Amino acid sequence: MAEEPSDTPETAEEEPIKQRKNGLYPGVSDELAENMKSGWADTELRDLRPVSQAAETAARRAALSARFPGERLVIPAGNLKTRSNDTEYAFRASVEYAYLTGNQTEDGVLVLEPKGEGHEATIYLLPRSNRENGEFWLDGQGELWVGRRHSLTEAEKLYGIPASDVRELAGALREATGPVRVVRGYDAGVEAALTDKITAERDEELRVFLSEARLVKDEFEIGELQKAVDSTVRGFEDVVKVLDKVEATSERYIEGTFFLRARVEGNDVGYGTIAAAGPHACTLHWVRNDGPVRPGDLLLLDAGVETHTYYTADVTRTLPINGRFSEIQRKIYDAVYEAQEAGIAAVQPGAKYRDFHDAAQRVLAEKLVEWGLVEGPVERVLELGLQRRWTLHGTGHMLGMDVHDCAAARTETYVDGVLEPGMCLTVEPGLYFQADDLTVPEEYRGIGVRIEDDILVTEDGNRNLSAALPRRADEVEAWMACVKG
């Protein structure tokens, strides 16, 4: 990695250029500063077309405008976060901002100003790096260090929103009058400029609305989710192909293999990959991925590719590392498969959101009673939640631009709500027998199984977006043998 620039540009005439401590150059000569101002070609992009979701983002802004008439609405993208010293984490714009604009640029802010019966939208962005004051090559975030930014004119063409310089926004917000709401938690500078104009209660109403707006996906979103799932399927195939190599290394080989697919075909992984082999499968969010991968154990792989537009898949398969389930592994796997089948069948328009969870939990409770691990009857087990010692988690969640999408929605519209066409959710029952659980026979201990698919609610039922990945035990074994080839 190249050393950071030695100096930062002047931000005001009276402020001298700051030197970087331990930089190798003592300063910038007048001759070099003058030389760097000129001799650069015009790189303005003049044939840009709107981003693919421009029509959808415009409709989303219109719905937002209608919900909060006469109020100024401020939705920030967020800022870079320091990883260590002078390196930053990869930036990911806030979901609310990306959902409404299609833009993914750090420091961006969408502002909806009340006008007439609606609002006038402006997207505030950093313009191209300044060549006159040397910012483009002296500043650590200048374009010669981190890459070219779009000009404001280019941004207007891409996103269909008038664009302005974000460096002027804080002052404008401080001078603003009338009711204002902001999406909190992303840009401290924006919030500070509005500190005497906003309330937590009103801002939470804005966040809740934007979360609930994503409950039902439009056609663009459904297409992106299918892209994410299709790439994820290929990522699972990649992993199966290298299982022999994995046995000589660790779970990290699995994580890295899947990550390659995510970066080649998408933006990133949608969440930290869970590559849990053997007893690690009993840890629900095992993301250390540093354990051994042994023949005869199971691999629980919970992973999802995130598309370039931030939509993520969330798929889990539990695979026999040597390609064949043992008798006890298959017994537990088949129980989870049967529970998932019941859960998927309950995903229907007009059904209660909780129905798929209840259906899957009932099957698992029946199995636990049948195996003598908990005393029945089943109704008693479910009423007391006794099955949860081994089922642990809910059976699914909404899916979209966040892996646990719409999390800020009101309970009555989400968990206590009704399924509608266009909703997309996961169905993911599991059974987990901890290695130190003395209440179950020894042969069960250390086995964890989860099967997860991404299910779209349709007008007449549902569609399994991840159906290309086999689920039934015999089909999983045949698929693995075919992929290994």
TrEMBL record:
GO CC field: cytosol
Segments for region (Disordered): 1-30
Acidic residues bias: start-end ranges: 1-14
Single GO molecular function: metalloaminopeptidase activity
GO-annotated biological processes: proteolysis
Residues of the Aminopeptidase P N-terminal domain: 52-191
Cofactor(s) the record lists: Mn(2+)
Catalytic activity: Release of any N-terminal amino acid, including proline, that is linked to proline, even from a dipeptide or tripeptide
Class in the EC hierarchy, top level: hydrolase
Pfam families: AMP_N (PF05195), Peptidase_M24 (PF00557)
Keywords: Aminopeptidase, Hydrolase, Manganese, Metal-binding, Protease
Gene3D superfamilies: Creatinase/methionine aminopeptidase superfamily, Creatinase/prolidase N-terminal domain
EC number, as in UniProt: 3.4.11.9
UniProt cross-references to SMART domains, sorted A to Z: AMP_N (SM01011)
Family that this chain belongs to: Belongs to the peptidase M24B family.
Protein name as catalogued: Xaa-Pro aminopeptidase
